[in-house]
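User: Can you predict the 3D structure for this chain?
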Amino acid sequence: MQVEILSPDTNLYSGAANSVVLPGKDGSLGILENHAPLISILKKGTIRLGSAEGEKTFEVNGGVVEVNNNKVIILAE
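Assistant: Here is the predicted structure, written as structure tokens:
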């Protein structure tokens, strides 16, 4: 699936990932291929991306995630 992590200052990540784990407002969210459409608020925590190159992590102070048609867009603070 395609993942984009955007902050007000820069594009933190843009590329393919096998899995995404997010710090959702009401608990951890795990996203895999063909996930149902979703919009959620994020709290402060760590985003973990699983990809062919290994795991990548990003610290965020909150934000919003949208999942639709194997595309994950994260607007991070």
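The two ends are 22 Å apart (CA to CA). The CA atoms of residues 33 and 74 lie 16 Å apart.
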